What does this fold into?
Amino acid sequence: MTQRLPFSCDYLQGCHPAILQKLSETNLEACDGYGSDPYTLKARELILKACQLENGEVFLLSGGTQANLIVISAALQRYQAVISADTGHINCHEGGSIEAGGHKILALPHDHGKIRGDDLEKYMANFTADANNEHMAQPAMVYISQPTEYGTLYSAEELKKLHQICRKYGLLLYCDGARLAYGLAAKDNDVTLPLLAEFCDIFYIGGTKCGALLGEAVVFSRKGLISHFFTTTKQMGGILAKGKLLGIQFATLFEDDLYLKVGQSAINYADQIRTFLKDNGYQLFFDTPTNQIFIIISDEKLKKLGEKVSYSYWEKYDDQHTVIRLATSWATNAQQVEELLKVLKEI
Amino acid sequence: MTQRLPFSCDYLQGCHPAILQKLSETNLEACDGYGSDPYTLKARELILKACQLENGEVFLLSGGTQANLIVISAALQRYQAVISADTGHINCHEGGSIEAGGHKILALPHDHGKIRGDDLEKYMANFTADANNEHMAQPAMVYISQPTEYGTLYSAEELKKLHQICRKYGLLLYCDGARLAYGLAAKDNDVTLPLLAEFCDIFYIGGTKCGALLGEAVVFSRKGLISHFFTTTKQMGGILAKGKLLGIQFATLFEDDLYLKVGQSAINYADQIRTFLKDNGYQLFFDTPTNQIFIIISDEKLKKLGEKVSYSYWEKYDDQHTVIRLATSWATNAQQVEELLKVLKEI
Amino acid sequence: MTQRLPFSCDYLQGCHPAILQKLSETNLEACDGYGSDPYTLKARELILKACQLENGEVFLLSGGTQANLIVISAALQRYQAVISADTGHINCHEGGSIEAGGHKILALPHDHGKIRGDDLEKYMANFTADANNEHMAQPAMVYISQPTEYGTLYSAEELKKLHQICRKYGLLLYCDGARLAYGLAAKDNDVTLPLLAEFCDIFYIGGTKCGALLGEAVVFSRKGLISHFFTTTKQMGGILAKGKLLGIQFATLFEDDLYLKVGQSAINYADQIRTFLKDNGYQLFFDTPTNQIFIIISDEKLKKLGEKVSYSYWEKYDDQHTVIRLATSWATNAQQVEELLKVLKEI
Amino acid sequence: MTQRLPFSCDYLQGCHPAILQKLSETNLEACDGYGSDPYTLKARELILKACQLENGEVFLLSGGTQANLIVISAALQRYQAVISADTGHINCHEGGSIEAGGHKILALPHDHGKIRGDDLEKYMANFTADANNEHMAQPAMVYISQPTEYGTLYSAEELKKLHQICRKYGLLLYCDGARLAYGLAAKDNDVTLPLLAEFCDIFYIGGTKCGALLGEAVVFSRKGLISHFFTTTKQMGGILAKGKLLGIQFATLFEDDLYLKVGQSAINYADQIRTFLKDNGYQLFFDTPTNQIFIIISDEKLKKLGEKVSYSYWEKYDDQHTVIRLATSWATNAQQVEELLKVLKEI
It folds into this structure.
């Protein structure tokens, strides 16, 4: 059987070769467990340095839903709630995880996956003015994602505005960076790691979708923001005995800017595909600057495409058209893109 | 700096070389995510076959605390509780995980880490007879570990008795097999995988401590025992996007009986060390048939030992003696054991 | 100080005099605790009879938020969610109770406080068709209120349609009847208690707002729908030692149709007020058939009104107008209404 | 049918006549809801005064299990646990409530229902010394009851010692006073309300078993100890719309020292019964100074007793004897005691 071209998502392959090599080299080295190994230590240092954080903290977790669940559960008191775009990953595709952890998600309408500052300001002003708000779950955190679930990006200006509103109302700002590498590498992106660290109280740097086998690095912009985070993580099943598995991967990703490089390659291919699509009469559902490409395609063409390319179904557009997503990743190569374009031309 | 001899626990190194090789070979292969890859499929088949289960189900999770939390939470209704030995891992060293998931642990006194059938029978008879038991959390599951936290083993006879009491009172029997490979390989062990599958409703086959980088294989002895286990796992942060990372490891461990072999090697070395200790005037805290060795040692000797060997502190024995634990693993080799015995002789 | 006229809500006074008398008569009578007293038994019988339920069950709880929390928590598995109108009481004014109990609320847009059958059908059709829905909390119950938070009523036809959609998709239908007495008594209401019992799996008959000091009667339309409901109620702090306090109240309310009478009196006064308002140039925010009246009033008039009448603020209408709520109750009397109308005429 | 003499527990009857009268007098008075009525305000003031607390806070809840659940859930962070005697009510008879709220109970062996200071000190010293204690739920509160579930009392000296150990290790001390009136009135009791307020961070004054229809007054010894307690209470279903029902009862109980008087009467009768028992050859299971009396009685006599007296089964003593509990209450009267003694004499 011929394998279809892998463009359905960005977590299809294993890990970046540099990580595999490091895992091999260190395989039989004995290290202390639970994140106290030297690789985890090194990863923490490299990440804090990349974020220009002098007083920050880093914890390595296994996956995105896990990171969101543990961070949000640990940060909120039991009477508190988290604000999210209605399209937020925590609100849609994590099995009711945040609520199972005890917290309400207060969903705001999204703008291409983003929360508008004005909507947040208005929501908080109304809540604060409500004389009966002690009968309601208390908003205490804002959850955003960069890039968003729609592949869009907050600008530095937009992020700053959210930051200021959060400060004004005593809210924590938390950013889900599952695909952060692809955001950092996007053309015109002006939200760097240090800037993310300045404007967010907590964020995570995605590994699973950005070159690692598994792993997300949760960054707290100041030490002691959350007490006993290790115990909460243990309690929620998030501590790996062989913590070095995560440490080695992030130490590798943050050495010599590898994390930026894996993102850049994916973005270059995605831009190439987007240009091709526009030049060849394809209609984008909306334009995106990152590794996710959303296309409106006729069902007839889609059938043919599906024979040769693995893609993600997004939603029905109309009776005869469908919205699909193609995604590049660190593992995408020139030959795959060439073949994809050929297929897109032929169908 | 000279590395100390690694005998403190069984999760110090990476993974068995056969696993590393398979991870390398398949690294750039694109696979569907979330456990729908062919390696996970194969691992499931091999495990069911090894357990002689025709109608069972297997789910691959990342770690022991996670497996216990998700299995117990998924299996119990919110008014139900789980019975454990007071020394049970869930009762002592998992950060209050089960309770954070909403369930009470009903602790029975242990016998070298094991629950006595008679104690369980008596407890359930009393509960059932109590006219006010609707005011109490309802016992619905028994949690055991094989080997136990004390390195001891249930015999087939003992397991069968627990099984029968569980049937009588409508309790699920769940076995934590974090170190199962070392139990299966122990001399005189008569609890095989098929027998475990016959007597337990649910158990997990430990990977993290038995040759894998991470991973535990949860086995349900019959399909449909727990509804929507995938969603519950997702909700609790236990689904890896790159599920093949777990699939490849367990497929490798269960091909050509590798899982039995990694256990056998560790047991052989542990037996060798135990024999040496007895022959050389050391006192065992109690005798164990698996890869964990408990020694009562004078504080003076301990100080010298600690300079060359990494061990685990267990508890104070008296003013001048301490109980320590040494553990072998799949990664232990002849040279390390030789050097350990040399140190034990000299101090 | 002169007391303002009490129209802000329907829980300002104590209990119906017939209840107070019965509490006095039985005060020193010794009864078994926790709901096993003869009055609770009698209340259960009378309620089942009024609902024409031969195989139903009744549990008496203390308050509405408590009833919603315990019923929904007890009925749902941990991977399940409840569908509600976005204006549903559980979604807005219960402190995040359902989520703190572990369950996501899936909010549908409301139509004057009601869920449209078509919206529900569409939502469930989409969910069922979604290939990735195992990554999402599983909808398992629909929460409605009768009357709604906006004082509106489902017709028998609308309720039947919701019932049929719930059957089709395996959803439980649960109705919050905090103000049910006022719904039952409303002109043109065609949803009787037996009909409610036929179309809903679970509902509660409100006591607190309908003549009792406290208490809500949860009705299960068939026995055994929920296992160990007593233990779950105990666990969530919902069992009163002196259960007869609830039993006496509901036994009184359901003897000689008192429950219908207390509602009728409130509706008559509300209708009288509504007629007056329309005849005197007041604008209703929207028309309602129950004991809640929503008025758009100029801020100038509102200031004067507030000096003599206690009302509820609802929301700002525009720069110079406000929406307020007036509520009648079983305790409203002719003199109070007369004085209210006088005030409304004068301001 | 002749009613048996009511000595099985202290929550059989309604409320003290003074409360009933006040409820009657105020029944039709309109009051704001949710605890903002003048009676609740007055009750809070009277209680703080009785406790000599200048900076304390009082919240009125409905029942004991509810109070324990809400207080402990609100006071603990999610990684924290509560220490209790193994016989503690929260550990035995509240349906797993604390665990359902997410927190582990760390059970210490009891001494007639009490925690020994030395046991607590030793437990905390061990925990603090354990290098791996970050893998464990963190003890943060000590739960005691006064009187205990065994009817015994802590002395001021014992309470002070617990207080000091709690201070040393940063633990909150919380006292369950479900039967506090009977403790305060006991001969030789030296733990007054002000002293309880001095040594405990939080405690509750029992109403349900001490003269009220329902209600427990939670006292925080300093304001702001717990943030947003109202919202947490709302979230857990503990807010009554008609808060005045609780306010009126506690305002009555704390006017003119009624709370002390209702306890005194019960203690006098209990002492009279105990003296009689000793004088007439009955054997007490152990001696208690409060309203609960534990008797070892032959099964033959018990059968006869049960025909005329309602009692509580406690446990089997041996093949031919049983331990039972008799309880007096505020509602016990001279005639009932006289008849009881007559029965005890005759059987």
